[in-house]
Amino acid sequence: MAMCTPVATDDCDLDAVPLRIGVRYSTPSIALDYRDFETGKVRLLQIPLIDCGIDVTPHSHAATMYESLVDQHPRFLSPSVMSRTQVTRLLQKLVDR
């Protein structure tokens, strides 16, 4: 699994903060570790791309995939929480593989 560390801005009001994000190749997915402020626990969110209506093919566009993911999971993937460039780069790894 390819992993990166996200950067959240200080001015956003979050109930959870992403800690790490990565991609899973076997079932194309985004894996996200985050800290839930209410409980203080670190949790894992797995987002299978097929569940978001995204089919990963060699002709897929990472930017289009990103927009679809942000629409469905803004709490964790919106640009105010996670770098668009970082998420797009991880999605491109799925496309290239």
Structure description:
By secondary structure, this protein is an alpha+beta fold. Helix content is 29%, strand content 28%. Helix 1 packs across helix 3. The longest helix is centred in the last third of the chain and has 13 residues.
Ends apart, CA distance between termini: 12 Å
Indicate the proportion of strand residues: 25-35%
Instruction: Sketch the major β-sheet.
Output: 4 strands, antiparallel
Which whole number gives the mean pLDDT? 85
* Secondary-structure class: alpha+beta
* N-to-C order of helices and strands: EEEEHHH
Provide a count of the helices. 3
Brief characterization of the structure:
This protein is an alpha+beta fold and 97 residues long. Helix content is 29%, strand content 28%. It has helices at residues 62-72, 74-77, 84-96, and strands at 2-4, 16-24, 29-36, 42-48.
Secondary-structure blueprint of this entry?
Blueprint: E1 2-4, E2 16-24, E3 29-36, E4 42-48, H1 62-72, H2 74-77, H3 84-96
Antiparallel strand pairs: 1-2, 2-3, 3-4
Helix pairs in contact: 1-3
Main attributes of the structure:
single chain, four-stranded antiparallel beta sheet, globular, 97 residues
